[in-house]
Amino acid sequence: MTGVRVAGVGLTRFGAHDGRTGRDLFAEAALAALDDAGVDGDDVEHLNYGNFMGALAERQGHQAPVMTEAAGLRCAGTRYEEACASAGVAVREAVRAIRSGENDVMLAGGMERMTNLSTAEVTESLAVAADELFEVRAGVTFPGAYALMARAYFDEYGGGREDLAHVAVKNHANAVPNEYAQYQREISVEQALDSPEVASPLHLFDACPITDGASALVLVSEEFAAEHDLDASVAITGTGQGGDRAALQDRADMARTPAATDAAEEAYADAGVTSDDVEVAEVHDCFTIAEVMALEALGFFEPGEGIGAARRGDTTRDGDLPVNLSGGLKAKGHPVGATGGSQIAELTRLLRGDHPNSDAVADATVGLAHNAGGTVASAVVHVLEVAE
Amino acid sequence: MSESDPDVPANTGYDEWADALADDGYYVECANGHGSLPPRRVCPECGSTDLSEATLPETGTVATFSEIHVAPSGFGVEPPYVTAVVDFGPVRITGIVRDVAGDEVAIGDPMRPDVETNGATGNRLIVFRPA
Ligand SMILES: [Zn+2]
């Protein structure tokens, strides 16, 4: 089995891209990734592409051939859809294809356009990731679902809105120097607490924004990297995926995300590392409570301890385990189908030393990316390591 | 594939199940005692296809809830409204809380299920009223 290297990464700025098409956004990210890798588009053997709501946002289904063409590739493509974990799955399947020996060069990533819809329309589109019969018809929105989890968490383990506010404050602070981030500005705990209520107990500043954007990675086999003398120092050494019941009501515990635990255990075993080895992480903080539950599911904190991690400084840039140095979904933005690819792009930059926040993890050699779908009915975890 | 048998609960639909909540609600129970909700052909816990209907407890208790302030367009229920997951022992059910204000709902409150028609969508709307 061959190893997999991240040869290049490409991102659009995340935010509102008025008047631009999804294909234009993805082309920008793809060309940037190929340029960063020093790989010719003709060498790409397959596109693994993540997208969630394109059929609703742009009335464009069947996006893989559209995006393959937009990126100037002359190969086939496949779209992966697993709600907010779409790009994570696209990357995972590319890793598996390269490891199997089937392919040497893959482009993997994703795109989402969201700001061309009204807030109510986005709410409706995102709700499609919930269980149609038992949640959507019962009025559960995406923020509402995480609110149900947050209330269950507070009830089971304690903690409260102020703890969550510290998660938002941390991630906004991390986003300030990140040129790809939607919000390059700090916020205060007071601002977070005073923001309007969206779905009790969650307020506006507990939620990620509505975002347009694209991500792309050039993934290659170790042999291809060596033969072509590529500067590809970061390897994807572990991949894992977990699943859970779609509806919250069907889970044993609404304050836990076992799909992420399963994904992490698979990825750790695959890479031959443990949670103790991880020095920097990008986790799926679509809501502040999601980051808390991720930290616990990934084995970084015991149940009930994750809620205080940001407030204690454990996960801030000066802490033992900096989390979401990119700004996270909260401040960097969450173009749903692009997010999983962007997390790995950011982690690669952090480990290579060319991210504006790399100095916070100057000696780090092991990083983790956690990408979740819906209310973590799907989860994909990747372990990245500096290979040389 | 066998022809659908009207006496097999796995083939009953969601709408019928929802309508039943107005009277004696039911859930699906497998041969090993696991509870789940229809439509269902197989127990998600153990894979048993030996499923039968069991009577839903008359009242449940609020397991978690949220007052929703931003709703999808055209949903038919104007925000703010309270969505709750209510625990009925073997199963939990999600619905909208009626007859009680958002700031007066609490985890553990007893609720009984009911069904309305969502005028905007024509779908059944699962609701809970204080028991
Ligand atoms: Zn069973």
Automatic annotation (TrEMBL), chain A:
Report the residue ranges that make up the Thiolase N-terminal domain in this protein. Answer: 15-223
InterPro entries on file: Thiolase, Thiolase-like, Thiolase_C_2, Thiolase_N
- Domain (Thiolase C-terminal) spans 240-385
GO biological process, alphabetically ordered? isoprenoid biosynthetic process
Which key words are in the record?
Answer: Isoprene biosynthesis
For this entry, the protein name equals Thiolase domain-containing protein
Q: Which organism is it from?
A: Halobaculum marinum
Automatic annotation (TrEMBL), chain B:
Q: Which stretches are annotated as coiled coil? A: none
InterPro entries the record matches: ChsH2_C, NA-bd_OB-fold, Thioester_dehydratase-like
Q: Which residues form the ChsH2 C-terminal OB-fold domain?
A: 55-114
What protein name is recorded for this chain? Zn-ribbon domain-containing OB-fold protein
